[in-house]
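Input.
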Amino acid sequence: MRNCILFILLITFISKTYTQSNRLEIAGIVSLDSLPIKDVHIINLNTNIGTISNDLGEFIIPVKLGDSLSFSHINLKNSVINITKKDLKSLKIDINLTQQIVSLEEFTLEKPRSIFEQDKDIFVYKGPVINAATLNLPYANTVAKEDKAIFKFSSGGVVNLDNLINALNGNNRSAKLLKKIQLEDSRLSKIRKYFSDDFFITDLQIKEEQINPFLNYCIQQNIIYHFNKKENLKVMAILLKQSKSFPLKEASDIKVTLKKD
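Output.
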């Protein structure tokens, strides 16, 4: 019985060896868009014999009629071909693989969050409120008083100097005077914008840096009152007249004359 089993195993081994010996080595090239691909795994699915393509995309593997060859690569789609009589006759096959495309699930881009923004789903603080009052810190309930002595000039410092001095020295009338100064500043800025800097520089011969002082010089002639009444021709007449006696203009004319001499 034992000899019978050994005989059967020997016959099976010889048959398998004979079958393998009947396979022919076939050569091939693996490419992608006519470019050779290396490191492609080629496996004969009938014999589990495999190989890998070289830098030129070339490979050699034993096959016989009807064998299935599997081609796989990490970046390419897997492909399986069957060996035909034509392949065995030429002993050469060319395989063209296609690129593998990975589809991503749909997602929505949202506005970037600040690094200081808290995600309500992650962090929700339910503890006690902590602030200066709960900690009993000194002056926790103190409210800062508004400093009405600080104000902004929008026209580059065009204010009535007398009113400014009175505002700084008079404690009882400071708020009203500061409000009046700011109003004058706003009106003078509108007058300058209405007539344009070119009018002051070209027609009145007032330098650009002296336009604001010149408008302040003309306040006593009620240019703000006439401008509010839309008496723009009256305002122009006042500006023309006052430009002839403007002190800073005369000082600059004297400097120019001295330089020429």
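The chain has two domains: 2-96, 161-260.
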